[in-house]
Structures are given as C-alpha cells and as structure tokens.
Design goal:
- By secondary structure, the chain is α+β, with helices and mostly antiparallel strands.
- Helix content is 18%, strand content 27%.
- It has one domain: Alpha-Beta Plaits (2-Layer Sandwich), CATH 3.30.70.
- The strands form 2 sheets. Strands 1, 2, 5 and 6 form a 4-stranded antiparallel β-sheet that branches.
Length: 84
C-alpha cells in the first residue's frame, strides 16, 4: 500500500521559496528499511530508532529532484516512487 505525507500539489511553492516539482511516496508493505535512500539523500529519508523509514519531507524541491530520483531507482525493494 502506498502512503505519503499530505502535501500541496507539485509545482507549488514551499515556505522556504524552493519550487516543488515532484513528491516521493513509499510502499510501506514493501519497504524493508534497508537505508539505501537514507544514505543517498539524508535530508529527505531517515531511518528512525525503531529501524523504520521516515520520509522527512514528501515534497521534493527542484534542487534535490535528481538525487531523490537516484535514491528511488536504487531502492532494493522498489518500495519508493516519484509522483509528478
């Protein structure tokens, strides 16, 4: 099942004036918290004290988009996806 944070639609502005073009979502049933994504983009993905993946901000600013796309494609369980 895919779950994501409730965020405004893509292409809206964040409060810090960075344009948001895409969102990232996780399939929590597939995610094994391997931390590949957290190692690649720690400002977006984190493994909490209970070894669960946390998406710190589902709205991805344009300056992080390529890094997040790489993290999504690097997920060993294919548990992440980009929403345009």
């Amino acid at each position: 099942m895919l779950h994501s944070l409730q965020c405004p639609p893509a292409s809206q502005q964040r409060g810090d004036d960075r344009e948001v073009r895409v969102r990232v979502e996780a399939d929590w049933d597939a995610c094994e918290s391997n931390a590949v994504c957290a190692g690649l983009v720690p400002s977006v993905f984190e493994i909490d004290d209970d070894d669960n993946l946390q998406i710190l901000d589902g709205d991805i600013p344009a300056d992080l988009e390529q890094q997040v796309r790489h993290a999504v494609s690097s997920c060993p369980k294919m548990a992440l996806r980009i929403v345009e």
